Amino acid sequence: MNSSHFTSGMDEHAVVITQVAERQWHAVEDDRTVGRGDASRRPDGRMFLSIDSWHAAVFDQLADAMLADLPKPLYTVVDEADLDLTSDWERAGFTTRRREWEYLVPTDPRVTGLGAVLPPSGVTIVAVGEAEESPLRKLDREIRDEVEASVGWQEMPAEVLPRPDGATVLDPSKYAVAAQSDEYVGLVRVAPVTRQPRIGLIAVRSDQHRRGIARALLAHVLGSLHRCGIETASAEVNESNGAAMALFEGVGARRASSNLELVLR
Fold first, then answer.
1. Which tens digit of pLDDT belongs to each residue from 220-240?
2. Single residue among 100, 122, 146 that ends a domain in this structure
3. Among 38, 84, 130, 264, which residue carries the largest CB count within 10 Å?
4. Which of 206, 217, 103 is nearest to 151 (CA)?
5. Are residues 209 and 237 in the same domain?
6. Which of 33, 68, 100 is the last residue of a domain?
7. Are 199 and 148 within 8 A, CB to CB?
8. What's the whole-model pTM score?
9. Which range marks the domain in which residue 252 is found?
């Protein structure tokens, strides 16, 4: 267990930074815990940090101790509206890697305009939880390879980033798919979060683009949620993904907030 001593700028009391566990740090002043720092490794292997402190000086001291012990690159996520926290991380050397908009998506077809939307000829929608695992994983690999060849799969939402073993479909029951003949050509991931399900990913194989498959998948999922009495779903979209932003905004989704992913390389 490692400890470091600092003197705060507000008074002359020593702040003691102690690593209390492998990835946890505490800041203590006069027997009071005045800050905590945590590091957690996400399924894709990246290390994300969080710091909760009373004062900016304590934040800086915790950050210094953590950065000295952890290998780079390091990441954190902040609410863009929290200017103080964003500034704290920037002082520690972090820079913005990407911005994600959080959308609130209505489910009522009278609002979305999706009530009459049907899949294109020859395509059927397989409901959430009914997709076969083997062809779902095959489609996931195909789409992932296509994304890797363009913007890179690391730009996808955190919940669909690959684990160290390469798996991205961790729970097939969360997916609805578009099927054509004997193969799957599109998918949508829905996390059943209480009261406001989360649409984590909509993707269509590149040779099936511009046929309306993504819109049909969204119509199916939102319609199903509406029939269950759920009024809105949430979705996070990378601001660089213009097609996804247009898809959601075209059905009446509104931006509720934005998050910044910061990185220290």
1. 999 999 999 999 999 999 898
2. 100
3. 264
4. 206
5. yes
6. 100
7. no
8. 0.81
9. 101-258
